[in-house]
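Objective 1b of the project was to move from sequence-level analysis to a structural picture of ligand recognition. The entry below was assembled by the postdoctoral researcher (A.K.) and checked by the PI before modelling. It contains the amino acid sequence of the target and the SMILES of the bound compound, copper (II) ion.
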Amino acid sequence: MTVAATTLKYQIVNRRLGLWLFMVSESMIFLALLASRFYMQGTNRPAEVNQTLGLIITSILLLSSFTANRAEVAIAHGDRSSFLRLLLTTIGLGLVFLAGVVTIEWPEALHFAPPSTGYGTAFFALTGMHAFHVLTGVFILALAFLKGRRGGYTVDDHWGAEASIVYWHFVDVIWVFVYPTLYLVGS
Amino acid sequence: MSWIKGLLFGIVGFVIGSGLMLLVGQRRASEPMVTVGYIFFLVAWLLGVGVWDHWARGWFGLENKPTPTFKSHGVARYFAFSTDHKVIGVQYLVTFVALLLLAGALAMVIRLQLLQPTGILDPQTYNTVMSMHGIIMIAVAVAAVIGSLGNYFVPLLIGAEDMAFPRLNALSYWLVPPVAILLVVGSLLPGGFTSGWRVYPPLAERGGISMLLFLIAFLTFGLSSIIGGLNFIVTIIRMRAPGMTWGRLPIFVWSIFCASLLSLIFTQFVATALLMELLDRVVGMAFFAPDQGGGAILYQHIFWFYSHPAVYVMIIPGFGLLMEIVAHFSRKPLFGYKYAVGALLGIVGLSGIVWAHHMFTSGMQDFLTAPFMLSTELISIPTGLVFLVTLGTIWQGKLRLTTPMLFALGFLFNFTIGGLTGIFNADAPTDLQLHNTYWIVGHFHYTIMGGEIFAFLAGIYYWFPKITGRLYSERLGKLHFGIMFVAFNLLYAPMMIAGLYGMNRHVATYPPELNGINMFISIAGFVLGSSFLVFIYNMATALRRGAVAAANPWQLRTLEWQTSSPPPEHNFSYAVRVNGHPYDYGVDDSTHVAPATGAPMPAAAPAAE
Ligand SMILES: [Cu+2]
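Corresponding predicted holo structure:
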C-alpha cells in the first residue's frame, strides 16, 4: 500500500469520527426540544392529530433509510448505476416526506394546534427543526448524486457518499424519537 | 482582502435575503426580514472570506484554489483566509485581546457610573453597557484561551502538522467577526440591550429589534464554539505523534480536550434556548409564555444546563495552563499527573448535573434544591484535586519566578478565594440572601477574571517568545503582574462586601450609604484597567525591537520548544517521536522527545536538571 493510500484512509477515519461527533452534538438540540415538550405539556395530545398521515410519512422515511443503505452498499462494491438509482429514490422519498409534513400536516395543525399554544409550539418546533434537517440531508444527498454521476466516487474513496448517507440515517433516527413524542404519547 | 470581499458578499446576501422576505409580504425592518436577511448575510460572508474559493468549489466539481501559504507577505496573511493553525491561533489571539480590551473599557464606564449613587448614564444606557460588557467577556472567556493558545499550541504539543480539519478551523474563526458586528450594531440601535448577557424572557422577548440582533449574535458564536470543540477532539484523538500516548499528553492538551467535550455537547442547549426565544419572537410561539401553555422558567433550565458547563469551558483550560506552567517553572514532574487528568474528567462528568444552583430563587420546585446543592458541592472534590496537584508540584520545587509563573501563582491565590466564596452560593440558605447582589459579581470575577484571565495572560507571556520569536521585558511583565494582582484584589473583595450590605447588581444606582466603598472599588478598577497599558506597551515594544528569542529560551521539555521560534510551516523539520513523560525534570536519563534519527534537530535537546 502506498503512503498516499494510508493517509487517505487515515483521513477518512478522522472525518468519520468528526461526523459522529457532529451528530452527537446535533442530537442535543432535539433532546432539549423533546424535553421541553414534556416539560410544557406533559403527555397532553390533541385528538385531531392526523394518525394516518403520521404513519404514512414515518413509513416513507424509514423506507428511505433502507434505500440509502442499499445505495451505500452499491457504491462500496463499485456498482455506480445502482448507487445513482437508489440515491435518487432516497432523495425522492425524502421530498415526499417533506411535502407530507409541510403541505399537508402543517396547514391541518394550524387549525387545531396553532404555534401560539403549548402543544402547537412543541409540534411546530420539533417538526420544523426536523424538516430543516431533512432539507439539508436532501441537499447533501443531491450533491453526492451529482458527484457520483460525474464518476467522483471509487470503491476506496466514496467518503462524500458515505457521509451524506450516514447523515440521512441520523435524520431518520431522530424522527423515530419525534414521531412517538408527538403522535403516540398520551391522549 | 478577505474582510472586504466578505463584507461585500455579506451585504449582497443581506439584500437578497431581506428582499425575498419583502416579496413574500413582510414589512420593512420586521423581525422575519432581519432574521432571514442575516442568515443570507452570514452564508455570503463566509463564502466571501474564502469558504467558496478554498472549499465549496470542490462540492460542485470545480477546482479549489490554494490557500495562502505560510511565507506569503508577513502580516497580510493574518487578514486572509488561512488554514494554518498558527495563523488562525494568532487571528484568534489578536481578535480576542482586542475584545477583552473593549469589554474592559466598558467595565471602566460601569465603574465611572457607580462612582456616585446616581451616576451619569440613564438606566437604559447603563443596561446596554453592562450587557455588552457581559456578553463580550463571556465570549472572551469561552473562546480566548481555546481559540488562540489552544489552536496555536495543541498541534505543536502533540507533535502534529496541523489540526485534523484545517478548513473547519478557519470556519470557526471567521464566524466570530459577524458576532462582533451584530453586537456593536445592536448596542447602538434605539432600545439597546436591556436584559444582561443571559437574555432571560420575557424581557428579552419584548425588547426591540436590538434584542433580536443580540440573540442571533449569541447563536452564531455558539456555532463557532461547537465547530471548534469538534475539531479539537478529533485532533487530539487522531493526530498525536508516535509515542505520544494518553499518559504522556501535556496537561494543557488534556484540559483543551475536556473543555472541547463540554462545548460539543452543551453549547447546543444554549443554542436551542436562544432559538426558542427567536421562535417566540419571530413566529409567535409560546415556549416561555405560561399563560399559553409554555413554561415560565423553562428558559432558565435549558440556559443554565449549558451555562454552568460553560464556566468549565472557561476555567478548565485555565487549570491546564496553571498546571502546565507551574510544572515547567518548578522544574519538577507534575505531582500526581493521573489525579490531575482524573480531576479534569471528573469535572466534565459532574458539570451536567448542577445547573439549578443558579435557580434557587427562581421559584422552581422545592424538592430540586437539596440534590442540586449536593451535586454542586461534589464538584469541589475534583477542583480540590487540581489544587493539590499544583501545590504538590510547587512543593520543594526550584521555582523560577518568571512573569508567566507569577500569573499562575496569582491564579492559585485568586481562585482559592473564588472557590471558597462559591460555597455560600451553592448553599441554598445563604444563596437566598446573596443572590443578585454584588457578592455574586465579586465571586465570579474572582473565578473567571482572577482565574481564567490570569491564566490567559500567563499563557500569553509563556508563549510570546514562541509565537513572535521575540523576548519581552521581564521587568515590565512583573510590573504588570504586580499592579494587576494588587488592584484586582482591592477591586473584587470590597465588591463582595458591598454585596453583603445588600447592593444589587444590574442596577444603575445604589443607596447613598454605599458611596464610600463604591468609590474605593472604582478607583481600584481604574488602576486595574491601567495595568493593561503596561501589558500593551510591553508587547508592542517587544514586537518591534525585542531581543530575538532562541528556540527554547527556558530549556523546557515539551514539544513546542523543540522547534524554531516561530515554528516553520509544518511545525517540525524532523519526524517527531515521543519517548517519555513531558514533565520529568530532574529524572535521570529521561527525555520527552526522542533525538531525531536522520533529520537534524533544530534546537538543543531538552535539558534535564
Ligand atoms: Cu453554575
